[in-house]
């Protein structure tokens, strides 16, 4: 038997088992399910960044206040409000010698359980990325590579996207479409295909002259088998209703946890280190008898629900 072929088949089967589910903002789910997550389950949470570290004064103005029970920067309210990740990029040059920018992205694996830093994963099996968006200036989709970004002078492989103000644009990009910028003259080269094999984050970057630029990231998914819609869709009222804080409750009876107010979804119990220590279907009670006394967070997630609450085990 050819051991190399056997190993290749095993790796292919493993990659197929962990699929990148196309994220559609109108469904109201704040976390992108990349299929590359590690034990921390911190992949796919949206974050923003800007040029302030280099002297710029750019920022994103969000349509609603950010925050949830876990983090004051969580974008759950934005997703529910916009049916995507939307806002206004206020680009201000400050002392920059280049055009100002802001970016919105997510980590594909999540935090390293030992260091807390974003971990890298092999996203080659995605084949690339599809995205549906609107933007008042032409953005770029950039491949974040963690600490390696500084080694290449932040000349990360990226793919340019067109301006889309009157209607949403849906674009599919193979990994080979991502290239380092033409201005990069360094010796360390990396292709989009090579970057995909060590991918840390996907970043939607808006860089232009000073001014205000509206945007909305409506959907993102894999190039291979991706199903990014052709247009942005407003969030449905049924999703908003189910997600109401009063409709879903975590009921603790001794060491037995029950979820009420929702018929389908998954409940997770997370310790203060961010580790999932118990998990089960919301239709059944979850035994927490083996857990130590202390404070935990309960997360309930499904296609039409996103709920979190703190519990105290005694």
Notes on the protein architecture:
The chain is mainly beta. The protein has two domains: 3-235, no CATH class; 238-313, Immunoglobulin-like. The chain is 12% helix and 35% strand. The strands form four sheets. Strands 1, 3, 4, 6, 9 and 11 form a six-stranded antiparallel sheet that branches. Strands 2-5-10-7-8 form a five-stranded antiparallel sheet. Strands 15-14-17-18 form a four-stranded antiparallel sheet, with no helix packed on it. It is globular. 38% of the residues are buried.
Question: How does the SSE layout of this entry go?
Answer:
Elements: H1 3-17, E1 23-24, E2 46-50, E3 59-61, H2 76-82, E4 85-91, E5 101-107, E6 128-135, E7 140-144, H3 148-151, E8 158-160, E9 164-174, H4 192-196, E10 201-207, E11 211-222, H5 237-242, E12 249-253, E13 256-260, E14 266-270, E15 276-281, E16 286-287, E17 294-302, E18 305-313
Antiparallel strand pairs: 1-11, 2-5, 3-4, 4-11, 5-10, 6-9, 6-11, 7-8, 7-10, 12-13, 13-16, 14-15, 14-17, 17-18
Can I get a quick summary?
The protein is mainly β. It has 5 helices and 18 strands.
- Distance from first to last alpha carbon: 56 Å
What is the structural class?
Answer: mainly beta
Instruction: Please give the domain count.
Output: 2
Helix coverage percent? 10-25%
Mean pLDDT: 86
Please write the string of helix (H) and strand (E) elements.
Answer: HEEEHEEEEHEEHEEHEEEEEEE
Radius of gyration in whole Å, from Cα?
21 Å
Count every helix, treating DSSP H or I runs of 4 or more residues as helices: 5
DSSP strand (E) fraction? 35-45%
Main sheet characteristics: 6 strands, antiparallel
Low-pLDDT runs: 1-17, 237-246
Shape type:
globular
Extended strand count:
18
